Inverse folding.
């Protein structure tokens, strides 16, 4: 499978690119500037210990034209513009996985929310109904993505409007080394994306090193509430 990473020259893009290559697929590192993509194409494979032929460099538009799956890893401030740039080159057989979080690139303690309510909803609106968008990888650190041989410290939350597409994306995410959970539609993505700032706060407040979100079930033997007897007069 060929995957494009639009804005693939940043930390999160490098992490997603690594996971694509680790899954055995080809990653097209996309950039507004081909030379920047070529530098990462050369430096990333030896850094993460993966075969060089799984990494290719391209402009964002050329990367998108070749790909079956398109990841978006740009800052929120360039999100709408980059989506508008790639839109004419997308077709309805491709899936877009939007990784952009509403974090101000100039101050990670501030959020910048698109008028649609979330980056996922903005992507779905700009790209239109023919393109299926799934928001995912918003709450995982680039460091965790780059460390592809280590056990993950988190699950991957997904939001999107099409159930079948989310199912397919969940299977791809498993191949990328993570358990994925469908946590709602694009209208629910604001809550999911808001977790990113909470994780950044955790990092600052407790010096937790790039924490992640992991879902846990009740342990066996625990009582499942509600127990109606609790509220009845004895
Ligand atoms: N870093 C993390 O650990 C992390 C974790 C969770 C979510 N995220 C989210 O993932 C996204 C990428 O994060 P990052 O840390 O990799 O960001 P970044 O390094 O600031 O940006 C990634 C790439 O986006 C491109 N870009 C920058 N400004 C742009 C603009 N105005 N228009 C179009 N492209 C632009 C640049 O590529 P070119 O100049 O080569 O085009 C840049 O290398 C962000 O939305 C962030 O909130 C990051």
């Amino acid at each position: 499978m060929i995957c494009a990473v639009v804005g693939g020259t940043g930390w999160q893009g490098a992490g997603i690119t690594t996971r694509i290559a680790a899954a055995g697929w080809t990653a097209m590192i996309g950039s507004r500037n081909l030379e920047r993509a070529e530098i990462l194409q050369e430096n990333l494979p030896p850094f993460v210990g993966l075969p060089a032929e799984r990494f290719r460099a391209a402009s964002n538009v050329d990367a998108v034209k070749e790909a079956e799956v398109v990841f978006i890893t740009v800052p929120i401030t360039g999100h709408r513009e980059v989506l508008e740039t790639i839109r004419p080159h997308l077709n309805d057989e491709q899936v877009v996985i939007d990784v952009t979080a509403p974090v101000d690139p100039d101050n990670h303690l501030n959020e910048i929310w698109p008028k649609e309510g979330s980056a996922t909803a903005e992507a779905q609106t700009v790209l239109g109904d023919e393109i299926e968008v799934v928001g995912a990888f918003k709450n995982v650190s680039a460091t965790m993505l780059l460390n592809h041989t280590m056990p993950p410290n988190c699950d991957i939350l997904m939001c999107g409007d099409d159930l079948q597409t989310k199912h397919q994306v969940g299977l791809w995410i498993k191949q990328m080394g993570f358990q994925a959970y469908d946590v709602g539609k694009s209208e629910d993505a604001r809550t999911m994306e808001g977790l990113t700032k909470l994780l950044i706060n955790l990092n600052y407040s407790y010096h937790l090193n790039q924490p992640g979100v992991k879902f846990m079930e009740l342990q066996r033997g625990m009582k499942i509430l509600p127990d109606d007897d609790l509220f009845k007069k004895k």
Observations:
- The two ends are 64 Å apart (CA to CA).
- The pocket of NAP is lined by residues 7, 9-13, 31-33, 36, 73-78, 81-82, 99-101, 103, 105, 138, 141-142, 196 (CB under 6 Å).
